[in-house]
Design a protein that fits this description.
- The protein is 78% helix and 0% strand.
- The protein starts with 6 loop residues before the first helix and ends with a helix.
- The chain has 78 residues and is mostly helical.
- The longest helix is centred in the C-terminal third of the chain and has 35 residues.
- The chain contains three helices and no strands.
- Helix 2 packs antiparallel against helix 3.
């Protein structure tokens, strides 16, 4: 389906799409990958996304804990 020169780009696209990256970010990453031959932008975007997901997960966890405490205080939770 892809020749040897297209395969790395297809793999990067698939990886970034699984991470729900917008097409604009993917295009910028591919542009840099094709221009410089470096995967540094890919790694930077993945690290940024990982930090974003970590922060979001912590916020959700804190929200869940606060809701649990609130419901427990009302006698609605276990």
């Amino acid at each position: 389906m892809y020749d040897e020169t297209e395969l790395p780009a297809a793999q990067v696209i698939a990886l970034l799409r699984r991470g729900a990256y917008p097409f604009g970010v993917i295009a910028a990453v591919l542009g840099e990958l094709w221009t410089t031959g470096s995967a540094q932008r890919v790694r930077a975007e993945l690290a940024r996304r990982e930090q974003e997901l970590h922060t979001r997960s912590l916020r959700r966890l804190r929200g869940s804990a606060a809701l649990h405490d609130y419901l427990r205080g009302r006698g609605d939770a276990c």
